[in-house]
Inverse folding.
C-alpha cells in the first residue's frame, strides 16, 4: 500500500522552513496564452476552486499560490491529467514570494483579479501576525494591479473577514464596494470550504475591493 503523505492543516509562514521565496517559472511555457487576464488565488489549498474556474473561464489564466507543498503537487497532477492550459499552481509563501512572482511577468502581467478565501484564522493574539493579509501584501498587490482590478475576500469567521477588509481599507489604492457583507458570490465557482459552510446554513462574509485611481 502506498504511503499517504500527511498534510498539516495550519502552517506557520514565519518559520525558517518557508523563508525561501518561490522561484518563478517560465510563464510562456506554463500558459498556452499568457497574454490573457490573470486571476491569482492566494492560499488556494487543494485547488478545487481554481480547477472549476479554469474549466468554465477558458479566456482567463488562473494561478494558485499555496504554502503546503503536497497540496500543490497534487493539484498539478490533476491539472496535467485534465490538460488545462490556463491553470498553474506554485508552492510558496505569500509573505516573500508574491513580489518576485509578479515581477517576473514584466510588462506582460495582466493581474486583473485576486482572491483570498477562508485563510487560516490564527485565533490566538500572539499568532495573528501569521495571518496572510498584512500591510505588505496589500501594498504589493496595489503596485502590480491595474486600475479597476479587484480583490475578492471571503471567510466564515467575521472577525477574520473584517481584519482583511481593514487592511485593504487602510490602503489608498483600494476602495471597498458597499458597506455591508455581500450576500452572494460574484464568481462562477465556490471553494470547498464555502460549499460546506453554506450547506450547514452558516454565513459567509464576503467583500469586494476595487483598485482605484489614486497613486500609491
Amino acid at each position: 500500500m502506498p504511503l499517504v503523505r500527511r498534510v498539516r492543516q495550519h502552517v506557520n509562514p514565519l518559520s525558517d522552513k518557508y523563508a525561501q521565496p518561490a522561484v518563478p517559472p517560465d510563464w510562456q511555457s506554463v500558459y498556452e496564452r499568457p497574454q490573457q487576464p490573470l486571476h491569482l488565488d492566494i492560499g488556494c489549498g487543494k485547488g478545487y476552486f481554481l480547477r472549476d474556474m479554469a474549466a468554465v473561464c477558458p479566456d482567463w489564466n488562473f494561478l494558485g499560490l499555496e504554502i503546503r507543498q503536497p497540496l500543490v503537487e497534487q493539484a498539478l497532477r490533476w491539472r496535467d491529467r485534465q490538460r488545462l492550459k490556463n491553470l498553474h499552481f506554485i508552492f510558496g509563501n505569500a509573505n516573500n514570494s508574491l513580489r518576485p512572482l509578479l515581477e517576473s511577468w514584466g510588462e506582460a502581467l495582466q493581474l486583473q483579479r485576486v482572491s483570498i478565501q477562508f485563510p487560516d484564522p490564527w485565533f490566538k493574539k500572539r499568532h495573528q501576525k501569521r495571518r496572510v493579509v498584512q500591510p505588505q501584501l496589500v501594498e504589493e498587490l496595489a503596485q502590480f494591479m491595474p486600475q479597476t482590478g479587484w480583490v475578492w475576500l471571503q471567510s466564515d469567521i467575521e472577525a477574520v473577514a473584517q481584519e482583511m477588509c481593514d487592511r485593504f481599507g487602510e490602503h489608498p489604492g483600494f476602495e471597498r464596494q458597499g458597506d455591508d457583507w455581500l450576500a452572494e458570490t460574484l464568481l462562477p465557482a465556490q471553494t470547498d470550504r464555502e460549499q460546506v459552510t453554506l450547506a450547514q446554513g452558516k454565513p459567509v462574509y464576503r467583500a469586494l475591493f476595487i483598485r482605484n485611481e489614486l497613486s500609491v
